[in-house]
């Protein structure tokens, strides 16, 4: 049966190994891996169908709600609407957390990385405590859905179990596993992994929507009356969880999918930008943005296309239902990578292969109504991609420290140079929250301080 299926999908080279009972393959792993593969999708990808093609239509910058809008009277109205949505139980959170922390020197899920300035709380703890703080503020539980990967699902679940779910109820935290895709050679041949199965890789954060549907969690949210899903990636400790302003603006515009952006640092920053192409909102990846648009200036000398995506989105649940029920498939992006495999003698080697991934932002063109909100980078975006340098562990810790210092300065508190400060989300979720509790703060901070 296994041999027959392999031949049906044009993988005779592996079928021959099965027939010959090669000691370098695992029939069990092959069965498991093949069970996760949609044959039609695989054949389409081998034939070049369903692959992302950069759009070529008329491009223009998007309408963006500027960051300074947050201080207006209209923003107050939108923020109050967002707070009502949370208190009514209409909001859930989806966190993408399928990555491993190996590049950061961590053996285990990336979310287990200690990243806060004083207590070195893990990313998982920081995000969980923000949700717990919202629960306490609005007296309403917020379903916390965590997308893991095949490689870190068990470790992630154990981490939450060992830490008593960071104060959240076990019935408030849900785990679901993203899909997997096989890598292929340039000739369309599946690649044997070193464990004897197929070389599989996660299908990208764009697989979140299908995984939500297949797991049954999308239906569960509907039954609970949740119609808004706040989406973010685990590696950003500054994410403003379920930002009421973002929620309120999204609903006011009757948007189906909304995005947060920051202004690009400069013309050459390697970040995707939001643009409108032939009337459809999209994220254009840095590598796909033509130079004429990348270096286009406005009257103030700033990039015209400066709305840098930070992987924070808001979805209508009904929108996700619609595109998953209709079978709309997001396109696959392909990348040529070195892939560990074995040669005909079972020896470990690396070969060039093609990996396929879907990106969540490719859902934007399917939305008839979208919203783009600009936020301050230093307040909401500190991604942890590297060990040192830009977008690193050290930069994320530094940005958190600077943000907390700015809150304390607004409260009239003096923080000595070289002192690290950390404010627990359970004490204050934002600057306004801190200012309301200023009487509990010391007037001068002369040593590292954790405020809880």
Features:
alpha/beta, 15 helices, single chain, Spore Coat Polysaccharide Biosynthesis Protein SpsA, Chain A, three-stranded antiparallel beta sheet, 452 residues, globular
Polypeptide structure, described:
There is one protein chain. The protein is an alpha/beta fold. It has 2 domains: about 350 residues, Spore Coat Polysaccharide Biosynthesis Protein SpsA, Chain A, CATH 3.90.550.10; about 70 residues, no CATH class. Helices cover about 30% and strands about 20% of the residues. It contains 15 helices and 18 strands. The strands form 6 sheets. It has a 7-stranded mixed sheet, with helices on both faces. Strands 1-9-10 form a 3-stranded antiparallel sheet, with no helix packed on it. Strands 5-6 form a two-stranded antiparallel ribbon. Helix 1 runs antiparallel to helix 2 and helix 5 packs across helix 10. The radius of gyration is 23 Å and the shape is globular.
Quick structural summary:
The chain is of the alpha/beta class. It is 30% helix and 20% strand.
Tell me the name of the CATH homologous superfamily of the largest domain.
Spore Coat Polysaccharide Biosynthesis Protein SpsA, Chain A
Strand portion, in percent? 15-25%
Helix content, binned percent: 25-40%
Report the top-level CATH class of the largest domain: Alpha Beta
CATH architecture of the largest domain: Alpha-Beta Complex
Structural class: alpha/beta
Radius of gyration: 23 Å
In total, how many domains does the architecture comprise?
A: 2
How many β-strand stretches?
A: 18
Distance linking N and C termini? 60 Å
Strand arrangement within the widest β-sheet reads 4-3-2-7-11-8-14
SS summary, helix count: 15
Mean pLDDT: 95
The description of the largest β-sheet is: 7 strands, mixed
CATH fold annotation of the largest domain: Spore Coat Polysaccharide Biosynthesis Protein SpsA, Chain A
Low-confidence stretches: none
Task: Give the overall shape.
Answer: globular
């Amino acid at each position: 049966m296994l041999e027959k299926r392999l031949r049906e999908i044009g993988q005779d080279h592996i079928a021959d190994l099965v027939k010959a009972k090669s000691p370098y393959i695992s029939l069990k792993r092959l069965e498991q891996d093949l069970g996760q593969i949609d044959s039609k999708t695989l054949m389409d990808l081998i034939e070049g169908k369903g692959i992302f093609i950069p759009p070529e239509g008329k491009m223009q910058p998007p309408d963006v709600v500027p960051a300074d809008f947050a201080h207006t009277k209209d923003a107050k109205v939108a923020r109050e609407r967002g707070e009502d949505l949370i208190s009514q139980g209409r909001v859930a959170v989806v966190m993408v957390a399928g990555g491993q922390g190996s590049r950061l020197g961590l053996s285990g899920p990336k979310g287990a990385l200690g990243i806060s300035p004083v207590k070195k709380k893990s990313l998982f703890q920081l995000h969980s405590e923000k949700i717990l703080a919202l629960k306490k503020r609005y007296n309403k539980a917020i379903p916390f859905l965590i997308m893991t990967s095949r490689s870190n699902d068990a470790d992630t679940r154990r981490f939450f179990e060992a830490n008593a779910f960071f104060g959240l109820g076990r019935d408030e935290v849900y785990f679901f596993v993203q899909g997997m895709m096989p890598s292929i050679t340039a000739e369309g041949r599946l690649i044997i992994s070193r464990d004897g199965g197929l070389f599989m890789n996660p299908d990208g954060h764009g697989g979140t929507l299908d995984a939500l549907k297949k797991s049954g969690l999308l239906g569960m949210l509907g039954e609970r009356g949740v119609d808004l899903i706040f989406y973010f990636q685990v590696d950003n400790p500054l994410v403003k969880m379920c930002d009421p302003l973002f929620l309120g603006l999204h609903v006011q515009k009757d948007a189906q999918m909304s995005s947060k952006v920051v202004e690009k640092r400069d013309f050459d920053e390697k970040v995707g930008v939001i643009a409108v192409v032939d009337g459809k909102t999209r994220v254009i990846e840095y590598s796909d943005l033509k130079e004429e648009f990348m270096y286009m200036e406005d009257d103030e000398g700033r990039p015209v296309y400066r709305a840098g995506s930070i992987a924070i989105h808001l979805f209508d649940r009904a929108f996700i239902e619609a595109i998953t029920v209709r079978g709309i498939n997001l396109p696959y992006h392909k990348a040529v990578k070195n892939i560990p495999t074995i040669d005909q003698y079972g020896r470990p080697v690396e070969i060039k292969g093609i990996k396929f991934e879907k990106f969540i932002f490719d859902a934007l063109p399917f939305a008839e109504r979208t919203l783009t909100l600009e936020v301050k980078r230093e307040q909401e975006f500190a991604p942890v991609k590297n060990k040192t340098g830009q977008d690193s562990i050290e930069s994320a810790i530094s940005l958190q420290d600077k943000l907390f210092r700015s809150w304390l300065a607004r409260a009239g508190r003096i923080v000595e140079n070289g002192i690290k400060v950390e404010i627990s989300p359970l004490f204050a979720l934002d600057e306004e929250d801190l200012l309301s509790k200023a009487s509990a703060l010391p007037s001068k901070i002369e040593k590292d301080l954790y405020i809880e």
